Amino acid sequence: MGSRGGALPVAVLVLLLLLVLKNGAAQSRCSSGDLAALRGFSAGLDGGVDGWPAAVGNASSSSTSDGGDCCAWRGVACDEAGEVVGVVLPNATLRGVVAESLAGLAALRVLNLSSNALRGALPAGLLRLRALQVLDVSVNALEGAVAAAAVVDLPAMREFNVSYNAFNGSHPVLAGAGRLTSYDVSGNSFAGHVDAAALCGASPGLRTLRLSMNGFSGDFPVGFGQCRSLVELSLDGNAIAGALPDDVFGLTSLQVLSLHTNSLSGHLPPSLRNLSSLVRLDVSFNNFTGDLPDVFDAVPGLQELSAPSNLLTGVLPATLSRCSRLRILNLRNNSLAGDIGLDFRALQSLVYLDLGVNRFTGPIPASLPECRAMTALNLGRNNLTGEIPATFAAFTSLSFLSLTGNSFSNVSSALRTLQGLPNLTSLVLTKNFHGGEAMPTDIAGFAGIEVLVIANGELHGAIPAWLAGLSKLKVLDLSWNHLAGPIPPWLGELDRLFYLDVSNNSLHGEIPLKLARMPALMAGGDGSDEAHVQNFPFFIRPNSSARGRQYNQVSRFPPSLVLARNNLTGGVPAALGALTRVHVVDLSWNALSGPIPPELSGMSSVESLDVSHNALSGAIPPSLARLSFLSHFDVAYNNLSGEVPVGGQFSTFSRADFDGNPLLCGIHAARCAPQAVDGGGGGDGGRKDRSANVGVVAATIVGTVLLLAVAAVATWRAWSRRQEDNARVAADDESGSLESAARSTLVLLFANDDDNGNGDDGERTMTLDDVLKGTGNFDETRIVGCGGFGMVYRATLADGREVAVKRLSGDFWQMEREFRAEVETLSRNKSNG
Ligand SMILES: *[C@@H]1O[C@H](CO)[C@@H](O)[C@H](O)[C@H]1NC(C)=O
Ligand SMILES: *[C@@H]1O[C@H](CO)[C@@H](O)[C@H](O)[C@H]1NC(C)=O
Ligand SMILES: *[C@@H]1O[C@H](CO)[C@@H](O)[C@H](O)[C@H]1NC(C)=O
Ligand SMILES: *[C@@H]1O[C@H](CO)[C@@H](O)[C@H](O)[C@H]1NC(C)=O
Ligand SMILES: *[C@@H]1O[C@H](CO)[C@@H](O)[C@H](O)[C@H]1NC(C)=O
Ligand SMILES: *[C@@H]1O[C@H](CO)[C@@H](O)[C@H](O)[C@H]1NC(C)=O
Ligand SMILES: *[C@@H]1O[C@H](CO)[C@@H](O)[C@H](O)[C@H]1NC(C)=O
Ligand SMILES: *[C@@H]1O[C@H](CO)[C@@H](O)[C@H](O)[C@H]1NC(C)=O
Ligand SMILES: *[C@@H]1O[C@H](CO)[C@@H](O)[C@H](O)[C@H]1NC(C)=O
Ligand SMILES: *[C@@H]1O[C@H](CO)[C@@H](O)[C@H](O)[C@H]1NC(C)=O
Ligand SMILES: *[C@@H]1O[C@H](CO)[C@@H](O)[C@H](O)[C@H]1NC(C)=O
Ligand SMILES: *[C@@H]1O[C@H](CO)[C@@H](O)[C@H](O)[C@H]1NC(C)=O
């Protein structure tokens, strides 16, 4: 493909250099100037270059030793005259600055220092090496401006790659680089306008131009039209606005046009048909309006058309059916309407079709299963009607199907049609079947199903017995229906089930003890294996609040047991304490009675525990203070009594979490009088002291949380650059954009020791530096656990304290906001008091 356009000549060149090295090393010795240049380079690195003579970085050592012939050093290539022509040290664990002396290698043709840990500036002298053909310093931590106000003289340059560093200022223009074919400055902090006229004016032979993921702004530049040979143009992940200028549509060699995540507007004009070589067109996350032009007959090689999250209207262009190579068609989240009327028989390469969140009407085309390669189909949130066509029984390639939020009917025929599909792993049928249908009882099959979501369907009947046969099931959501009867105990015997939501039904009876033995929620369980990665967004969207959640991998779901809003009776089983892997337990709004068992403190991973709106009595067990990841705790509206435990996460919970329990006392409710529980009266003084104390702790926590949020966003950003495709898919959700995903990434700190609240608050303050150092910048080897909400790292602070640092994933945003709001309230109390 186009992106590799310049790679072949370079590979040949490197090969030649290596051959030269092999043949020439014996007779040639490198010149003293080159030797000094390389010694200087080595001296700039912490610890030199692995494999170079030990004394190389040592200015005082003489050149008479073995180390004197630099042509023999690892990664160094010389020509017959002994001049260094190549320094090729990619992925060589180099750490340190790039010494200016490197620019002394006057004959250098190839410099490849990609994927190291180089920092500091790019020496300006490197941009005046007249023989340099390849400069690759990608994936380092270099910073500052490139070629700002510096004389650039690179007449031989062919391939220029400074991507994934921290460069800033305006992007470099390699004036005089008339032979340049490949230019990549992606993943930096370059800003300002893209000077297309200067880039293409200087280097009309450019084939690859990548300026992705920077801070470029301004209107889409005119001038790319001069790059007549352009094969790839990538400007994604910037803030470029305006309409596409005409000259872009003269680029008849263009194969890749990637413009996603900008602020582009206007129409995609009919002259799109001039881009007849296009293989991939990605304009996702912009503000394009109007119809998609019906010109795809002129673009027969198209393999990907991605335009989700724009403002496109009109119908699907009929000529798309002519793109027989089309693999990906993603038009999610637009305002497209009409029938889904493509000729699917002609789309034999189509693997991924996402038309979700549009205004399509009519039935599902019965010919869809003729796309024999299709694995993922999302038609959710349209206005489609009718039944799932009987032809879907032959849709054997299908792995993922979401039909959420349409007006399909006949759940029985839907499940019967789909039950035999051998490759189906995820089925999401939420918000359909509005007629109040019965949950079918006579289903068999779904042998490979891992995710089954039939929520919000007004379905009645019982939780059907055929679910017991779904041995691969990991996620089951039947919430918001009218299902009645008991919770069947066999749900606890599904080996892999780690997410169970049957909330908002009319289930009654006791919580089956078997649920306390769900293998995938217990230590050593089998639920976390992720044999194949699911790369398709789908949604679970409880509508009890505005809280929407989106996951694009099954493994991202938080291990959960959600039985809320039913008519469950009896006690909270103490045995639930054995669920050491569960993250969310919601038993709220039932009719549960008896005590909160102290054994629940065994659920050591739990982050959210809600038993509110039941009839529980007795004290809140102090053992719950040991749940160090508990960030949401709600026991409101029960009959609890006694003192609220102190310590651990309890200092962060909101007063509202304890409301409606008149007999409860403690910092979050009424003050505990020593003699009686109804201490309403005059104890104001003591109360103020106490809340002031909490304020100090809370202020420290706020500071820490905010600081760490910055750190996490930076880390996330770095990560997201390398995971561009994943990030894009992950952002394609219903509840937030890429940006909100970034904002929602938070880090929380939980000290492992138990002396919370009464220790030296000054000592507890942790700085961002402490945390980054303590976790080795979130080093993978420091991971001690992971779950639906994020990774847990072990950190050793400077003073020797061991703490668990948790990087929360975006899904927990809402909870974090609530947590923070509460902490802020407490701080305000302090300044008032
Ligand atoms: C540099 O040379 C000095 C004296 O010869 C020696 O003490 C020192 O260890 C050398 N340093 C390195 C990094 O080899
Ligand atoms: C630099 O080396 C890496 C690793 O071998 C390689 O992938 C990359 O293509 C090289 N860069 C250039 C411009 O040849
Ligand atoms: C870099 O080197 C490490 C270890 O030698 C290796 O595992 C990794 O695949 C290499 N990465 C690249 C991009 O070559
Ligand atoms: C560019 O980065 C350098 C250091 O990395 C910084 O000192 C400078 O202020 C930055 N310049 C701009 C324009 O952001
Ligand atoms: C530049 O380097 C990055 C990282 O090594 C690589 O992914 C990218 O393909 C390179 N760009 C070009 C145009 O080859
Ligand atoms: C598209 O191609 C047609 C026919 O070759 C040509 O007349 C027209 O100017 C081209 N449009 C653009 C924007 O280059
Ligand atoms: C699209 O336009 C709206 C209104 O002008 C603006 O708020 C929004 O940020 C734009 N979206 C993008 C992706 O530029
Ligand atoms: C859907 O598209 C609109 C318009 O481009 C955009 O504002 C919104 O953020 C998108 N929604 C998502 C979830 O991406
Ligand atoms: C689609 O359905 C929604 C809700 O069912 C309705 O409000 C809307 O008017 C419908 N739109 C069309 C174009 O039928
Ligand atoms: C089902 O999945 C398997 C494994 O992913 C694959 O080899 C097979 O081709 C698929 N079946 C069909 C009909 O696509
Ligand atoms: C559902 O479809 C089946 C055929 O699969 C049909 O027998 C039945 O009558 C349909 N039910 C309703 C309510 O339309
Ligand atoms: C729970 O049971 C009571 C009495 O049996 C009934 O009135 C109520 O409707 C039930 N609630 C639900 C959500 O089914």
Automatic annotation (TrEMBL):
| One Gene Ontology cellular component | plasma membrane
Q: Which residues form the Protein kinase domain?
A: 778-833
Top-rank taxon: Eukaryota
Name it. Answer: non-specific serine/threonine protein kinase
Recorded family membership = Belongs to the RLP family.
**Cleaved signal peptide residues:** 1-26
Question: Where the protein is mainly located, per its record?
Answer: membrane
Q: Where in or outside the cell?
A: Cell membrane
SUPFAM superfamilies attached to this UniProt entry: L domain-like, Protein kinase-like (PK-like)
Per UniProt, the enzyme's principal EC class comes to transferase
Question: Coiled-coil ranges per the record?
Answer: none
Q: One Pfam family name from the record? A: LRR_8
